[in-house]
Amino acid sequence: MEIRTFQVTPFIVNCFVVKDGNEVLIIDPGDAPASLFRYIAGCMVRTIVNTHCHCDHCGGNAALIEKTGAELAIHKEELPFLRAMEVQAQMFGVSVTPSPDPNRFLKEGDAVGVGSVSLKVHHAPGHSPGHIMLLGEGYVFCGDVLFQGSIGRTDLPGGDYHQLMDSIQKKLLTLPDETVVYPGHGPFTTIGEERRTNPFLAGL
């Protein structure tokens, strides 16, 4: 199994590609650059997952779906945000291609598979109402819930600081310290490192 990162959009989003054998899962394609298409050439892209549907995390959905025929999976509470991508983008002075509607809604306890790998879905609201994370063996794709030295913002529509902190405490800080954290922006980290050094987690 291989995890490859592509940094996309002016917001420097981490778009993750999980590859096992000839199968590929794409997480948070804020854009679909040529380098991404070159990497997945010849592979079977089964699923695209948006951890949440802020425009910087799903701007590449349309191009990838058109090229690969992959299914799109999100939490149902993110559908209004997905359908409002263009309005979101205008607020930040950028433009995006509207996304197709999802083929599948994900909820707590579901699994997303790629090859022999199975990732467990955790609902982690706070940054957005339907934010989800994908947990593998020893690693987690956490979107905009937790960053190295910081946490997701809660001042956007649907954000809730208390929900976010509850999600972090119950869904992330219960994981082993050595768990690798793949965030939506910025460098990778570990649960233990954030537990020890992240000022936003003090007292949790």
Description of the molecule:
This protein is α/β, with parallel strands linked by helices. The protein has seven helices and 14 strands. The protein has one domain (2-201): Metallo-beta-lactamase, Chain A (4-Layer Sandwich).
Task: Describe the SSE topology.
Elements: E1 2-8, E2 13-20, E3 23-27, H1 34-40, E4 44-49, H2 55-58, H3 61-68, E5 71-74, H4 79-83, H5 85-91, E6 104-105, E7 111-114, E8 117-123, E9 132-135, E10 139-143, E11 146-147, E12 150-151, H6 161-172, E13 180-183, E14 189-190, H7 191-197
Parallel strand pairs: 3-4, 4-5, 5-6, 10-13
Antiparallel strand pairs: 1-2, 2-3, 7-8, 8-9, 9-10, 11-12, 13-14
Considering the chains and any ligands shown, give keywords for the structure.
single chain; 204 residues; alpha/beta; Metallo-beta-lactamase, Chain A; six-stranded mixed sheet
Summarize the structure.
This protein is α/β, with parallel strands linked by helices.
CATH architectural name: 4-Layer Sandwich
Return the structural class. alpha/beta
Q: What's the assembly state of these chains?
A: single chain
Radius of gyration: 16 Å
Strand content: 25-35%
Assign the CATH class. Answer: Alpha Beta
Strands in their spatial order, largest beta sheet: 1-2-3-4-5-6
Please give the share of residues in helix. Answer: 10-25%
| Intertermini distance | 33 Å
Number of helices: 7
Characterize the main sheet. Answer: 6 strands, mixed
Tell me, rounded to a whole number, the average pLDDT. Answer: 97
How many structural domains can be distinguished in the coordinates? 1
Residue stretches low in confidence (pLDDT < 50, at least 5 long) are none
Q: Please provide the count of β strands.
A: 14
The CATH superfamily is known as: Ribonuclease Z/Hydroxyacylglutathione hydrolase-like
